[in-house]
From TrEMBL:
Region (Disordered): 20-40
High-level lineage: Eukaryota, Viridiplantae, Streptophyta, Embryophyta, Tracheophyta
Biased composition (Basic and acidic residues): 25-35
Protein name per its UniProtKB record: Retrotransposon gag domain-containing protein
Taxonomy, superkingdom: Eukaryota
Length: 178
């Protein structure tokens, strides 16, 4: 989506840039009807095919074989949405389970944070972004009892900490313990 929006062609997949009529029907001042090709239609077809080509080039072979008969970017977008919507729900549930079950264990703070931010990025990619306070809760949940003094202190804070502040606090805590 960011690439399509960035070049101004997302309308071809979300149908806000619909296909114009192929033929323009007009009446002259005497009421005589005439028809002529719509010049906007050929431009739309050319741009739609460019978007379709871009999308097709970014699909895996396994997905590509399922959509070979599709002829417009919008049709492809709808087909892909249908194919992956149920997988997205399952994926979101699996990522949430991973977030709940994640443990810092003997990982470094940097490694643990990278793992947790990775889960947050996956949630965002699946259309369910986490707020920072939610991610902080998951991170704190995964800390073992050695971090209980820090967790208790953070729970007593009136103003919430940011992810960067939490990272610094955990890093400093680890350095003091070491």
């Amino acid at each position: 989506m960011p690439q399509l929006r960035g070049v101004g062609v997302f309308g071809y997949v979300d149908d806000t840039t619909p296909e114009p009529a192929k033929i323009l029907h007009t009446k002259d001042k005497d009421g005589k009807e005439s028809s002529e090709p719509n010049p906007l239609h050929s431009i739309w077809v050319r741009e739609d095919q460019q978007v379709l080509g871009y999308l097709l080039n970014n699909l895996t072979k396994e997905v590509l074989v399922q959509v070979t008969a599709i002829t417009t970017a919008r049709e492809l977008w709808v087909a892909l949405s249908g194919m992956f919507s149920s997988q997205s729900l399952s994926r979101v549930n699996n990522i949430r389970t991973s977030l709940v079950n994640a443990q810092k264990g003997n990982k470094t703070v940097a490694t643990y944070f990278a793992e947790m931010r990775g889960f947050a990025d996956e949630m965002a990619a699946a259309g369910k972004p986490l707020r920072d306070d939610e991610l902080i809760s998951y991170i704190m949940h995964g800390l073992d009892m050695d971090y209980q003094p820090l967790v208790s202190a953070l729970d007593a804070c009136i103003t919430p900490v940011s992810l960067d502040e939490l990272f610094s606090m955990l890093s400093n805590f680890d350095q003091r313990v070491a």
